[in-house]
């Protein structure tokens, strides 16, 4: 059975939606840079950090430097990431550079701790929104995909090494205290990006092994209104056939599920794994009910 092709109207709506969120993310990130970080000489990692140091030393417009330094990396992305990603990244970078000029000289605070914490939170939110919508503000991540394989490093190791070099440069230019604040900002932003990308209400993937699997499964369906799947396996030691229950539930339902399982079989084995994204008709129906 062939799936229906996506209509032109639907494609246009998807593009407009991505552009909207890329714009919002770029403006949020720019507000963090100009409102909290740049006025206090606290920098971000990657291209933005390099641009901030270069702008301080040369007095060249920060937004212009972000575009110029990112441009070769964006061109490099054509061979690795595809045209769609490149166009969305280029759009996000242009909007970000313009937004930097909009927020220029709008200083939110001169307190270093407040600038570090709130700058990192706001920056991470903006960058996370951009990444979630298939864009990027940092060309060094693209470079890392190319060079990490040639140098035998992971992408994470390459980015970490480059950022250490950037923060050492910040220490020489702004002082080592500001460099340490910058590293703290990067750590906070990194954690917030994870929250934006994965969501606060991450689901749980649950596997239940019990001699009363069918009874547990039926009770979960009736009392929690969730979909379950039975998986048939065999005990590695006992060689006895087992029926495994597999389901995905929200974090809020986890406590109730454990209570139900204990009522029916206190000896049941339960394995729980975080699930950051889940799609499907059953999940959509449950969301509509909620």
Query: Which shape, going by the Cα principal axes?
Result: elongated
Number of helices: 11
β content, as a range?
5-15%
What distance lies between the first and last C-alpha atoms, to the nearest angstrom? 31 Å
Number of strands: 4
Gyration radius (Cα, Å) is 24 Å
Report on this model:
The protein has 290 residues and is α+β, with helices and mostly antiparallel strands. The chain is built from eleven helices and four strands; from the N terminus they run ααααααααβαββαβα. It has helices spanning 8-37, 46-58, 62-80, 83-102, 112-132, 139-151, 155-174, 176-198, 213-224, 254-264, 281-289; strands at 203-209, 228-234, 241-250, 269-275. The longest helix has 30 residues, at 8-37. The model has no long low-confidence stretch (mean pLDDT 85).
Task: Describe, in short, the structure shown.
The protein is built from eleven helices and four strands. With 290 residues, it is an alpha+beta fold. Helix 2 (46-58) packs parallel to helix 7 (155-174) and helix 9 runs antiparallel to helix 10 (254-264).
């Amino acid at each position: 059975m062939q799936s229906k092709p996506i209509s032109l109207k639907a494609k246009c709506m998807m593009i407009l939606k991505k552009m909207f969120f890329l714009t919002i993310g770029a403006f949020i990130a720019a507000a963090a840079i100009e409102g909290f970080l740049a006025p206090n000489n606290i920098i971000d990692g990657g291209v933005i950090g390099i641009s901030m140091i270069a702008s301080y030393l040369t007095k060249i417009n920060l937004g212009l430097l972000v575009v110029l330094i990112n441009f070769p990396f964006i061109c490099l992305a054509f061979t690795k990431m595809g045209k769609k990603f490149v166009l969305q990244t280029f759009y996000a970078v242009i909007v970000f550079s313009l937004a930097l000029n909009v927020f220029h000289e709008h200083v939110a605070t001169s307190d270093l701790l407040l600038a570090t914490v709130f700058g990192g939170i706001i920056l991470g939110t903006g960058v996370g929104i951009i990444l979630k919508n298939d864009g990027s503000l940092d060309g060094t991540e693209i470079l890392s995909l190319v060079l990490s394989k040639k140098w035998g490093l992971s992408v994470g190791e390459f980015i970490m090494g480059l950022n250490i070099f950037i923060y050492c440069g910040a220490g020489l230019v702004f002082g080592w205290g500001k460099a340490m604040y910058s590293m703290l900002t990067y750590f906070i932003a990194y954690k917030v990006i994870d929250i934006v990308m994965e969501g606060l209400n991450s689901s749980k993937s649950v596997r239940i092994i019990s001699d009363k699997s069918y009874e547990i499964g039926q009770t979960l369906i009736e009392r929690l209104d969730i979909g379950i799947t039975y998986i048939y396996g065999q005990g590695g030691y006992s060689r006895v056939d087992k029926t495994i229950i597999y389901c995905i539930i929200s974090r809020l339902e986890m406590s109730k599920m454990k209570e139900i399982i204990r009522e029916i079989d206190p000896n049941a084995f339960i394995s729980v794994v975080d699930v950051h994204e889940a799609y499907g008709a059953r999940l959509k129906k449950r969301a509509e009910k909620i």
